[in-house]
Amino acid sequence: MWPNSAKKNSEGYIEAQFRQQFRPAHLLNFHALWEMQFLDIHKISFPETGQSLIDRFELDGLGAFYIKRQLDRSVRTWRRPFGEPTFAQELRNIRLCEQYHIPTLEPVYYGERQMEPGPAAILIVRALDGYQSLQDILAKWYGLERHIRESILLTTGKALGRIHGAGLSHRRLQADDIIIDLTQIPQWRLASPQYIAPAKSRDLLLELQGFLASISVVGETELDFLLKAYIETCPQWTDVGALKQALFPSRQAS
Q1: Which pLDDT value is given to residue 31?
Q2: For residue 96, what pLDDT band results from cuts at 50, 70 and 90?
Q3: Which of 103, 90, 89 is nearest to 162 (CA)?
Q4: Residues 6+ apart with CB under 8 A from 197
């Protein structure tokens, strides 16, 4: 399924702290990474736009990682108007998140090659074991103790405020895009940085409205915990009442 003839190499990326550990495992070679075989392969197909494989592997002393390989799946950007692998855009957005202190995925390797069918790319990120998506947490919401629910909402509010306070939008932010370590609250991360981009204030408000709709299981009283935490990290808003009026104008009018 995966061709092994590369016509052209490109610069690779690997975190300095992992370079020495990856070398003995022969994981600094794009071809070797491309050819890695796994028992359970998670294949994601994109009609007419290529395909991707996502697999998990572990290295002694280093923990677990996810290797994401894609073939002939690209997007046009102003940096590369003829197209670049979507993983290149994802890595760039991870770096953008780091610039604004938004915790997200931890990349350890990136590389590109030109294959016969089209561009190929590999992105390896550290596995974030212990984290759960807010969507999964909400599925058992009323089985959690009250103080834990409040801590989760405070964490979520600060997460959204951190993103929006930086003038960034996720463009499709939902409950499954925020992941939280329930054993170390308030540890959180943005699970899908590939959608991050600068946005206008109006867009941020609409995004917040959409996110709140995705956590409808949370009652209005509890929602105040999230909104109070949100304005602590998003300087555009200083009053919860004004924010709620902007978010729910019809509710306020009634």
Answers
A1: 85
A2: very high
A3: 103
A4: 93, 168, 169, 171
Residue 208 near residue 202 (C-beta atoms within 8 A): no
Q: Regarding predicted confidence, which is higher, 249 or 105? A: 105
For residues 11 and 162, give the distance between their C-alpha atoms in angstroms, rounded to a whole number: 32
DSSP 20-85: HHHTTTT-S-HHHHHH---SS-EEEE-TTS-EEEEEEEEETTTEEEEEEEEES-EE--SSSTT-EE
The gap from C-alpha 85 to its chain's centroid, in whole angstroms, comes to 17
Measuring CA to CA, how many Å separate 245 from each of 53, 92, 164, 230? 45, 36, 18, 15
Could you read off the pLDDT of 37-63 as tens digits, one per residue?
A: 876 555 555 445 567 888 888 887 788
Query: Using one digit for the tens of pLDDT, what is the confidence trace for 165-184?
Result: 999 999 889 999 999 999 99
Residues 246 and 188: their CA atoms lie apart, in Å, by 27
Segment 188-210, tens digit of pLDDT: 999 999 999 999 888 999 999 99
Question: What ranges in the chain are assigned the alpha helix state H?
Answer: 16-22, 30-35, 86-99, 134-138, 146-165, 201-214, 220-233, 240-247, 249-253
Tell me the pTM.
0.85
d(CA 81, CA 70): 19
CB atoms within 10 A of CB 62: 14
Q: Which pairs with CB-CB distance under 8 Å and at least 24 residues apart come from 45-48?
A: 46/73
Give SS3 for 48.
coil
Residues 45, 53: Cα–Cα separation, whole Å: 9
φ and ψ at 236, to 5 degrees? Answer: -65, -30
